[in-house]
Amino acid sequence: MINIFLFSALFSLGFLVIVLELVRSKRLKEQYSLLWLFVGGIMLTLTLWRGLIERLAEQLGIFYAPSLLFIVGILFSFALILHYSVIISRIHNQNVRLAQEIGVLNKKLEDLYESVNRGEKIENNPVDSY
Amino acid sequence: MRDDNSALLNNDLLKNRRVLVIIPAFNEEPNLPGIVGRIRQFAGVDVIVINDGSEDATSAVAREAGANVIDLPFNLGIGGAVQTGYLFAYKNNYDVAIQVDADGQHNPEDLLQIIGPVLRGEADMVLGSRYVAKTGYKTPLARKMGMVVFSAVVSLITRQPLKDTTSGYRAVSKRVIKFFVNNYPTDYPEVEALVLLKKSGFSIREVPVTMAPREYGRSSITPIRSVYYMIKVLLAIFMNLLRVHKKEA
Q1: Do A99 and B72 make contact, defined as CB atoms within 8 angstroms?
Q2: How many helices (H) and strands (E) does chain A have?
Q3: Chain A interface, best mutation among B70, B74, B76, by max A CB count within 10 A
Q4: By the 8 A CB rule, do B56 and B50 touch?
Q5: Which residue, B178, B204, B200, is CA-closest to B246?
């Protein structure tokens, strides 16, 4: 008989396997896989340990126990999305700095070409490395 | 005013001091040649135009007008563009950097008034302000309201009366240049930068300047954006209050 528990168990298990495989094949970085593995582990535990979810649901006043799974899943999804917003912000900052450095470097290159064309001697500028 | 300027130029202050004018420009082809030409009348002042991914001939006309140009590979927005100027100033060892808008609002004739206190070591940042004294500038109503709010909030936080907090006409010292390389807000950075500087222990002075309406084109601030502008800036200021700032000066 297929019920939500069996479905969740298979899904969680398959999910964990996929995450591990992505890390193994280096398509997912270890540090970004940790939260996913954690989510998968929690979902699997809640699914298999049926007593736990029912007891928790009762404590929280949830009438239909499997709906606790959904809540847990949704909350973890929010956490993950927030995690990604943080990562995107960091990548955004790095991207801005890269563009700025490229702009400054191109300007320097232009100036160097000009100096060379004028036949000037190029000296190493210590300010370059900061 | 002209006489004042030439007196200042002949003054010892500018001798052996490297001064850089930073002009962030996004699609400012019609306005740029005029402003660059007027700034280049000042001897001993370098001009760098930060072409922020313009789709028009901004870069070409700036070069033609005799400015140095940095072309950014894509549009970073005003904060990222201006910060590029500070990065350039830092790497090339400039003593003073002045931000000037590309749209012709800022009079280059006020340049020396703005850099004067920085050169004399009296202030780390000098803000060119429309409102310190009566000047010719008429502000649109909606903008005026936003500016009153910003002014009140910033003055309260910095414990110093600052009127024209959104003014992009400002000069900074060498120490601030170094500070801005690693600390500069991304969009609508003007107001936040003041709070950031003050919290890090730098001094700010406001001097009156005359401002003209834009020559060509429209301001980037539309009604919908101005709401976002208000919220973003106030949030940024609030967040700055919650941060621990290392005293740089």
Answers
A1: yes
A2: 4, 0
A3: B70
A4: no
A5: B200
Domain count, chain A: 1
- Rounded to the nearest angstrom, the gap between the alpha carbon of residue B54 and the centroid of all alpha carbons in its chain is 19
Could you give the CA distance from residue B125 to residue B19 in angstroms, rounded to a whole number?
14
- Smallest Cβ–Cβ distance between B71 and the set A106, A127, A130 belongs to A106
User: Using the beta-carbon criterion (under 8 Å), do B70 and A127 form an inter-chain contact?
Assistant: no
Any domain includes A71: yes
CATH number for position B99: 3.90.550.10
Contact list, A100 vs chain B (CB under 8 Å): 72, 76, 80, 83-84, 87
What does chain B come to in residues?
Answer: 249
> CA nearest B184 in A: which residue?
A93
Interface of A with B in 67-126 (CB under 8 A): 96, 99-104, 106-107
For chain B, the C-alpha Rg in angstroms (whole number) is 17
- CB-count burial class (<10 Å; 0-12, 13-18, 19+) for A17: exposed
CA distance B88 to chain A (A): 6
Tell me the C-alpha distance between A70 and A65, whole Å: 10
**Closest chain B CA to residue A100:** B84
Spatial distance between the Cα atoms of B163 and B191, rounded to a whole number of angstroms: 11
Q: Are A44 and A16 in contact (CB under 8 A)?
A: yes
Instruction: With respect to residue B80, please indicate whether it lies within any of the assigned structural domains.
Output: yes
With a cut of 90, say whether residue A98 has pLDDT above it.
yes
Provide the ipTM.
0.84
B25 inside domain: yes
| Residue A22 CB contacts under 8 Å (≥ 6 apart), including other chains | A28, A33
Q: How far is CA B163 from CA A7, B117, B151, B210, B219, in A?
A: 64, 18, 5, 14, 20
Cβ <8 Å between B88 and A101: no
Closest residue in B to A89 (Cα) is: B186
* Residues B54-64: tens digit of each pLDDT: 999 999 999 99
The 10s digit of each residue's pLDDT in A44-60 is 888 888 788 888 888 88
Any domain includes B70? yes
- Count A/B contacts: CB-CB distance under 8 Å: 43
